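At this stage, I put together one protein's amino acid sequence and its backbone structure tokens, which the following lines show:
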Amino acid sequence: MDLRSSVSLLLLLGVCSGLHGQVRTHPLNVVGSINFLIEGDILIPKKRTAMKCLKNAYSCLWSKSANGWVDIPYRLSSKYDNSEKRVIVNAMKDFEYKTCIRFIQRSTQRMYLSIEPRLGCSSTLGRTGDKQVVSLQRFGCVRRGIVQHELLHAMGFYHEHTRSDRDRYVKINWNNIKKYFVYNFDKKDTNNLGTPYDYSSVMHYGRTAFGKLGAETIIPIPDSSVPIGQRHGLSDIDIRRINRLYKC
């Protein structure tokens, strides 16, 4: 499978077909923002359409250098204290140890991640071509697995429970989902890079995500006891997908 065909449909890419027009109301939406939210924590730039990246697949991936590294420049807000900065930087280092992704401090690069303590945890999906904000609220979001979850969005990865074959692995309890958050469970037409469904992915929702009064919204099948929604760090399959998508 070549990179272009991998990028065109993916659980992975925020440029997948079906995004156009999916503007949803969400508490984190800001009036006048150039972005809109899907799936709870994914920001899609309004200026991007699904077709834009389908026509130019490489535009949504971070570029690989001649030395084989995929360098992702970032700027870390001075509003974080030293311990919070350590958590974020150490979460980034996990990628470098296990993949060809390397987060480097921004100097003059036009395309970079601006990691800021805004409201909630959120990220744009894939490379947008300019400054893009990764929001990591100081209280609740600065944890290794959550940091990695949002960085994976910025690299182009969707949530695991939205992949095309999910109905073989999880049951969605639609009646238990809060009315205005049903869209977070929309299934995507995806290319899964030849990897199995991953209950242990750091990109998987927990079983009570957006549930009414804490009701279960996602049930693993056939074994309902399988743990989902971990935020400890990258799973082995998360790592495999990064390496396949970016040809590490």
The beta strands are 35-38, 42-45, 70-76, 101-105, 112-116, 121-124, 131-136, 170-172, 218-220. Residues 82-98 form the longest helix (17 residues).
